[in-house]
Structures are given as C-alpha cells and as structure tokens.
Amino acid sequence: MIIDGSEKSLRKFLSDLPPVDQVGAEARAAMLATRSIKTSSKAWAIDMAISMVDLTTLEGADTPGKVKSLCAKAVRPDQSDLTVPSVGAICVYNDMVKIARTELDRIGGKSLPVAAVATAFPSGRASLAVKKIDTQDAVDAGANEIDMVIDRGAFLSGRIYDVFEEIRVIKEICGKKAHLKVILETGELVTYDNVRKASYLAMLAGADFIKTSTGKVAPAATAPVVLVMLEAVRDYFTLTGEKIGVKPAGGIRTTKDAIKQLVLVKETAGEQWLTPDLFRIGASALLNDLLMQRMKLRTGHYASANYVTVD
Amino acid sequence: MSDFEYANAPESKAIANISPNYGLFIGGKFVDPKKGKSFSTINPATEELLSKVGYGDKSDIDAAVRSARAAYTKIWSKMPAKERGKYLYRIARIMQERAREFAVVETLDNGKPIRESRDTDIPLAAAHFFYHAGWADKLEYAGFGSKPKPLGVVGQIIPWNFPLLMLAWKIAPALAAGNTVVLKPAETTPLTALLFAEVCQQAGLPDGVVNIVTGDGITGAALVNHPDINKVAFTGSTEVGKAIARSISATKKTATLELGGKAANLVFEDAAVDEAVEGIINGIFFNQGHVCCAGSRLIIQENVADEVLEKLKKRMSLIRVGDPMDKNTDLGAINSKEQLNKIEEISKTGDAEGANRWSPDIKLPTKGFWYPPTIFTGVTQSHRIAREEIFGPVLSVLTFRTPAEAIEKANNTMYGLSAGIWSDKGAKVLWAAKQLKAGVIWSNTFNKFDPASPFGGYKESGWGREGGRHGLAGYLISDSKVNK
C-alpha cells in the first residue's frame, strides 16, 4: 500500500508528486504528433483503434432504435468486410443499458461490454446517495463497465478526500461485476498538475481506468492531457505493479487523431498498453473515419461517405 | 501485447537536385577553382558520394575578396537600406519556398534526422533572414548612434553541425548591416551553402555581395589572413578560434568567435521530472550532440538522481537511431569518420578513469558513421569527459548536494556558452541564472533558438554575440567611432 487510506496520507502522497511543466509537456506531445505512421503500421493501428473504440451515444434524444442500430455497428462495423474487428464497447446512459445488453447478446455480441455513464453524468452534481443508486441501477441492468464522473467542484475546492471516498464507494458497488472508469473532466480541472493529481487520486481509490472527459466539455482529450495521464499510469505501474487503463474521450474524430493517440501510448506508457484492456477511445464519429481509411488502404482509393453506414 | 512497429517513412530524395560537381561561387557565378582541384562530400549515413566540390586556395580566396570589395564599394554600401532589406526578404521567402529541398540536402550531407532539418534548421535559417531584413532600414534606431556604418568585407567560416543555419547566422546580419561577405562552409557539409548560392542568384542579389568558397582549413586560413577583409566571423572549435585570434592581432581586423562549450544542465529536486528528462534528452541527443551549446554535463541533485536516471534510461531506450531520411528517426549519423574517432577516443577515457558507461540496446547500421546514445554516471569534475567537449551523443552525469555546490560545479569549466536550470521554483531559477557564468541560460527548456535572442559565450566559448540587436553590433561601427 502506498497510502494507508487516511486523508493525511492521501494529501501527503498527492502533494509529493512532481509538478508538470506545461511548456515541456505540450512540446513533448507536439513532437510525438510528428511521427509518420504509414503502410503496414497504419493498417495495424487502424484495426487496433477500431477495437479500442467505446462507441458512444449520450444524447437526450437516444431511443431504443438508435441504441440497437449502434449495437449492430459495434459488433460488425463494416458488413462488407468481416475482417474488421468489433469495437471495444458500447457506451450509453443508464436507461439504455438493458436494451443494449439484450440487443448485443441477440446479434452475436455477447463478449462486447456495455459501459454506462453513472453518478449524475455529466456534471456529477448530485448527492452521494443519488450517485450510489444511479450506479447500482446500471450494474443491475447489466452494465459491464461504469464510467463515473468525479466531483470537480470538490476537487477544485480542495475537498480531495471527498472525491476519493466517492470513487471508493462507487467502486464497492461495481464490485466484481463491473469495471470502473473514472472520468476526470480535464477540461474543468484545467492545469496539468491537477490532471496528474486527479489521475493518482482515482487510481489510489480503485479506478480500473482513468478517462479524460465526458465529451460535454471542451477542451477534452488533448494530446498533452493524455500524455500526463499515460505518464501517471506508467509510474503507478512502477510503484505498485498494477496496470490501470486510460480512456481519452471527446474531440477524437479522425484516423489521424486516433493514430496520434496510439503513438502517445507506445512512447509513454509503452506497448503493453496497446490493447483494448488498457486503452480505449471514447468516440462516435471516429469509427466511420477509421473504416474509410481502412478501405482506402485496401483498395487504394477513397470511397464516398455513403460506403460506410450512418447509425 | 502489441507490435506497433513504425514502418519506414522515408522522405523522398527526388527533390534534391544535387549536381555531380560544383565550382566556387564568386562574383555571382559558379567558377572553377584556379588550380582546378576539387574534393568529395559524402553522405555520412551511407558513405556514398554526393558530389565533388571545388577546392578553393589562396588565389581563389583573393578573387572572392576582390569581388566582395568591389560589390561593397560600388553597389552594396551605396544602396538605400530599404533596398538591402528587400533582397533579404526575397532570400528568406525563397528559402521557405525551397525548404523541403534544403532539408533533404542538409540531411543527406550532414547525417542529421530529416525531422530536425525540416522542423528546426531550415525554418530557423529563413527566420534569421526575415528578422535581419527588418533591421536593414532601422539601424539608426538600434542603439549604435544615428549613423552606424558597415565594416566592409567580412570573412566568415562556419562549422558542419548546422550548415545552413550557421550560414544564416553569419550572412543575414552582415548583409543587413551593409557588409559584403566571403563565406567558407565546412569541408564535410558544403552543399546547402552552394544551394544558398543558387538562391542568391534567384533573388537577383548583386554579384559579389555573397561569395562562397568551399575548401578545408587551409582555405579558411587564407581567408582569415587576407589583408583586405575587415572582420572575421568564426564558429567552430576553441583551438581554431585561438589561432584566428592570434593571426588577426595587430591588424585592423575585428572578430566574433563562437567556440566550444561544456554546458551544465542542472536538475533540482523540485523539477518537473518528466519534462526535465525530455530536456536532458533534447539537450544532449539533439543533432547527435553536435551542438556547441549541448547540455553535455548533467548535474542532478543527489536526492532525486536515482529517480531521474531511471526515467532517463527508459526514455533513452525509446530513441530511434538510424536512417536520417526516415521521418521517425530521432538520432542520425555522426557527421564524419574523424568526428566519430574523436567521440570514441574521449569516451574511452571515461571508461579508463572509472565512470560507468550505459547505452540502450540499440542496433546501429553497419554502413556509415554511428555512435549510440550514451551516458556516463559516476563522473567527477576531474574526469576528462567532464571537462572536454565531446561533440557527440555522450552525456556525463554528476551530482550535487546543495544549490551552491551546483553552481560551483557548473561554473568550474573553461567554457561558458550555455546552461540549463530545471526547477519549478521561480525564485530558485532566477537565483541560479544570476550565478551561472554562461551566455545563454535556459530555464525548464533547452536548445531553444530565436533570431531575436543573442547567442554567445563567456571565457573560452568565444567573443561577441550573434543574433538580436547585440549580434548586429559585431557588423557595425557606431558613429561615435566613425567620427574619431
């Protein structure tokens, strides 16, 4: 144990973390964005990125029909080419979990996890009691993964132990049934020092994954933010031997963006993180761009957008 | 587990239209050397012949200086400053337009990664011309009196580590101030200077304002000793710098000398560790460590030394060494066999004197000149590798206990070109910067250059400054001196 669970030990641990230099972190991320990924490595990266997509719909207008069509896309992203892998998971609101689970099971997607956004997503502004019920509800409905949001207000006002306790309680509800992804909402934490602290706080409290954003706040998964989070999981692994996953979400729309994310993973946390078990990309529009780039690599020319399905 | 190997992503050589042979650029034309001699320039990554270039001797230097003098007297010194500025802007724009061509030629001739020539060398070289173009008609506001005058003809000798960038550092301020030049590029890297000669023609620069004479040290000495040059501007080794200083003593000539360095890179306990590691890597492995201001002495506070070194070693294992033309290469080829021998020789003294050598497990190409990224730990001030400039990808690591000891060790060198400070505490950074005896001090970064920022050293690192307003001073006589 690197902390004993007390507020004092948590505070000491977080305040002892080395600072992040903003200019340096941004320069490193910018340098890695110049990597040139071509031919065979591009093909590999596209398939890996597809298998890492958490295909997401988080709209007030979501309906069973919309969620079912997303399930079909998740299992077989390209019905004209069955060598395309399935995506990493489906990510929906709580009330859509059962519909998604049933549909996935029906169409051959039994192994595909359903992730639910819980704990008063996206703002997290609700009492702990409500957040607990929210989470329990999602787990009961069959969610395999819970994407919880942290209480950014508490974090920013210095009540970090409240944030820690909340994650711990939600983790308990997840139990062995569901993986816990903790959304930091880095766009509201603003500084890289906060991102690093919140990353460690979440990992210490029991997160299986740390996730950048809800997708409802900009900026979201910027390269330097993901860099700082990847450094955190890498160093946490050195410290504890435990591998925590990372999920950038929000603003990753093109194949180029996704490949840049994979380069960040390879050259920061290391190649062992290049698996859907440890890296996911929360996205909706990205998948079709990946499919179109995949077609281009295979056929040598770009197809029109009508050759990929809109779900 | 994965296998995300980056496939080869080579930049195309097709754009580099390298001629099989080049003459000397004198009086606006490429002319054959008077004795008809030439020498080869090779690609240090493959040892393949790139071109044969003219070897300039004393008589060629004399022709070049005459041409520069004529251009100075008849055209350049009489031209309105605004017009001089226009030529410099035109040169800068053409360099940008031909940036990819310059980058490819630079990488082929020098061995540096295409990523660096593309993202650093060429854009910065163009930036130097843009910056100085702006000065051309504003010299009376530069603080050298209301009518500062050019010196006349300037002899310039540049090194092989940043061939085009060093050319820009020399030629841009000289021309902006109203001088004409004779420039001698380094023996192993003449090609981008010759490409630049084509740019001068393309820009319609009056004949003789820029003359480029390729050759070796003897050519350089002929230039330094020519009686009709007013100034020598030299970047290179301290040894040659001293010889130049001796040979111009008791003459009318002035000099700016930008010489060696053994920069201290200080990492304090409160540094942002991950970014400090990036800065250490950039400090010593940028351009294969062929950088006069390289952060070649890493001095870490002892209580964080293990943590920093562990992260540094992991990061070093990710350095991609190999084909400089591959866009993903981080560390390219050593520029010459001679330089490789020198790096090997000094590094061996590190082993012999008891320092511990470490390099990541990286396979080096079999053809060409290569040296792995290397660190020596357990280095003390009295080791040769802590005192002499290695000019290669070799880092000496020392430790300190207190800030005062850090400064003492950092300043205990015959050089004083640059230094780095890594600390998240602003007050400590400012305090350390005041104590350090170095011309350039970077805080929480390293190897950052800008045309507006003066560059130069203390002690055996040289005389004068290049870049910025201070750099212009070396190419002007202030009017108070003119009147006397």
Number of helices of chain A: 13
Radius of gyration of chain A (Å): 19 Å
Q: In percent terms, what proportion of residues of chain B is strand?
A: 15-25%
Low-confidence stretches of chain A: none
Give the strand order, joined by hyphens, for the main sheet of chain A. 7-6-5-4-3-2-1-8
The CATH superfamily title of chain A: Aldolase class I
Judged by helices, strands and strand pairing, the structural class of chain A is alpha/beta
Specify the biggest β-sheet of chain B: 7 strands, mixed
Which structural class should the secondary elements of chain B be placed in? alpha/beta
The unreliable regions of chain B are none
- Average of the residue pLDDT scores of chain A: 97
Q: Biggest sheet of chain B, strands in spatial order?
A: 14-15-16-13-12-17-18
- CATH C-level category of chain A: Alpha Beta
Order of helices and strands of chain A: HHHEHEHEHEHHEHHEHEHEH
Structure description:
The complex is a heterodimer of chains A (311) and B (484). By secondary structure, chain A is of the alpha/beta class. Chain A has a single domain, classed as Alpha-Beta Barrel (TIM Barrel), CATH 3.20.20.70. Chain A has 13 helices and eight strands. In chain A, strand 1, helix 4 and strand 2 form a beta-alpha-beta unit. Chain A is globular and about 60 Å long. The relative contact order of chain A is 0.14. The mean pLDDT of chain A is 97. With 484 residues, chain B is of the alpha/beta class. Chain B folds into two domains: 21-259 and 460-483, Aldehyde Dehydrogenase, Chain A, domain 1, CATH 3.40.605.10; 264-451, Aldehyde Dehydrogenase, Chain A, domain 2, CATH 3.40.309. Chain B is built from 16 helices and 20 strands. Chain B has helices at residues 58-76, 81-97, 99-110, 114-135, 163-176, 191-202, 217-225, 238-248, 273-285, 302-316, 337-352, 384-387, 403-411, 426-435, 468-473, 479-483; strands at residues 21-22, 24-26, 29-31, 38-43, 48-54, 149-150, 153-157, 180-184, 210-212, 231-235, 254-258, 264-267, 297-301, 356-358, 374-377, 394-400, 418-422, 440-443, 462-463, 476-477. In chain B, the strands form five sheets. A seven-stranded mixed β-sheet of chain B has the order 14-15-16-13-12-17-18, sandwiched between helices. In chain B, helix 1 (58-76) crosses helix 7 and helix 3 (99-110) packs across helix 4 (114-135). The longest helix of chain B has 22 residues, at 114-135. Chain B is globular and about 65 Å long. Chains A and B meet through helix 2, helix 3 and helix 12 of A and helix 9 of B.
